[in-house]
Amino acid sequence: MLEVLELSKTYGHIAALRGVSLRVERGQLLGFLGPNGAGKTTTMRSVFGLVAPDSGQVRWGGNEITEEARLRFGYMPEERGLYPRMRNLDQVAYFGMLHGMSRHNAESEAARWLSEFGLADRAKDRLEELSHGNQQRLQLAAALVHSPDLLVLDEPFAGLDPLGVAAMGEILATQANAGTAVIFSSHQLDLVEDLCDDVVIINEGSVALAGAVRQLRAAAPHRHLQLEVRDAPTDWIDTLRGAAVIARDGDRVRLDVSEGVELSTLLEAAQEAGDVVEFSYEPPSLNEVFLAAVGQ
Amino acid sequence: MTRWRTLLLVARRDFVERVKSRAFQISTALTVVLVLAAIIVPQFFSGTTTEWRVAVVDADASQVALTIELLQSSDDVIRTRARSAPDRASAIEMLASGDVDVVAIGGEGVVTSDGTSRTLATLASAALTAIDLTDRAERLGLSPAQVAELLAIDQAPITSIDGSEEDDDSGGMESLALFTTILLFVSIVTYGQWILVGVIEEKSNRVVEVVVGTVPPRLLLTGKVLGIGLLGLIQLIVIGIVAFVALRATGVADLPETTGPAVIATAFWFLLGFAFYATAYAAAGSLVSRQEEAQNAAFPLTMIMMSAYFIATFSISGDNPIIKIASLLPPFAPMTMPLRIALGRAEAWEVAVSSTLMILGVWLLIRVAARIYRGGILRAGGKIRLNEAWRSSEG
Known about the structure:
The structure holds 2 protein chains of 2 kinds. By secondary structure, chain A is of the alpha/beta class. Chain A has helices at residues 40-47, 67-70, 88-98, 103-116, 132-144, 162-177, 189-195, 213-219, 263-273, 286-293; strands at residues 2-11, 14-24, 29-33, 55-60, 63-64, 73-76, 150-153, 181-185, 198-203, 206-212, 222-230, 243-249, 252-258, 275-282. Chain A is built from 10 helices and 14 strands. In chain A, strands 6-7-8-3-9-10 form a 6-stranded mixed beta sheet, sandwiched between helices. Chain B has 2 domains: 2-42 and 168-391, no CATH class; 48-151, D-Maltodextrin-Binding Protein, domain 2 (3-Layer(aba) Sandwich). Chain B has helices at residues 2-20, 22-46, 61-71, 88-96, 118-139, 144-151, 170-204, 207-212, 217-250, 259-286, 294-314, 321-326, 333-342, 348-377, 386-391, and strands at 50-57, 78-84, 102-105, 109-112. Chain B has a 4-stranded mixed beta sheet, with helices on both faces. In chain B, strand 1 (50-57), helix 3 (61-71) and strand 2 (78-84) form a beta-alpha-beta unit. Chains A and B meet through helix 2, strand 6 and helix 3 of A and helix 1 and helix 8 of B.
């Protein structure tokens, strides 16, 4: 289990982290969300000792993280980087060996990951000869080759095409199912919503919301109502009380409804105004929860 | 144990990846070719190889040839070939027809023609005298050992006006010393630049972020210096062997007596000098983010190396206070002390003080450089000031 406890870090006058805490269990897939500059990367780097926090702790399995423990971690930084002129198989195997694998073991695992990513025939090519997407795959292979206990991925979906996104999502889910603790940051909230049970949202260096996605959505004080009413007068919506328009597109309208407003009242009002084609009532999406949490 | 393994893995990667790189292979091949060319090519142009042909009558031809070679002290390569002539008349005939350059007649003297060099005539005459002297000594009843001792007088030394003794060997020694200094300068700069470029490469393409997540920065720095240093040493040894074999094979120059110590000193000072400058280059490299800034970052180091090099080369003709002091001090010693050693000018205590200070200097610099490196390597964007890197890393 990874525990980040009350982490604080100041760069000059800028407080990057103000007491960030989070935890990831083995087998858990945690989405780490927040606007740019919220402190996601700083938090993730601190797990690898790349940032020395001013206060707070990062623990693994209840203990302070040692060099030995880090050998069992895998990391994919936000700014990707590998040796451009190294041959692909050698490169992945090198990272395997740095993480304590024997040469033989590292090479066979590297070969396995290369074929997993469809790069078996590029094993002897250099990194710089690969396309951008394939370089990303190799980066992931370098983070996975030693079957880490903890996987930390900073924006793993950035720059991937839809196929790559799907494949990446599948790999993360597989890793978590196999018992790895996985934490990743992302701006693609719909993706996070599909993939993760749990999220942590940070804003301006502190945790704004944390918990299971479903609970976070359910706990939101507002509900959203999706309505499509045909042949209604254009201003019928303005007569509703306790509901605010979020988006409107012709006959379709999305409303923000406060707690305590009776649905039946709303439905009646809609039926009086015209033909109701769609009437769906749901908690806000993760995207909406996120925007509310970061105060937008 | 894990640390050692990690250190060796890092060193191995830097070593192997460089050996496999085309740039390294080409530069090594080119250097070998250049060294060979520098040794072999001058022979075709300078024409310093001369052959003296001597006809000998009434004396042992091989003894005459040997004595002439022993007496001649020119830097040029001269081969003496003597052959026996049956009598005076046939020997003169050979001289007249140009088959030989001089005629040496035992018990009589030397006969020259217009084409005979003065040096050869003098040497041939001196050789006859020396042989005559030996014969007389034997006739007087001296044992061969006594004869040998009688003949083993050194030529009276010639002293120049500035008081320094003119040593027959000095030409060879000076070239060897200069060669050593150039070799040390070029190799330390070259391999230091490899470190510099390697560090900036890791930093600029951000791979260092992944590596340092697992490998402590100090190990990364040490491994890199170790791997590239070992490769540099091997390259130096290969070039040294090629040069040695070529020198031997062509007989261009006799290697002076100081060659052995000079080779050992060169290897020793290369290791110390490289360790010193390589860590400094690594620290400098960690402060910048792009290859274009590499030379700016390394400028102060390059200046120190250049000044050490110039102090060395300007002091070949004689020791001066500047090189005496410089050769004791760490940043300058790797290029100035080997020169003094090769010229046989360094006192034992000076070598001892200089190497002790150098080892201390390396030890100290590794700690300082490792801290700067650690502070600098993970900071992206622009040039980082030395003290910022120092402060952001807690040692």
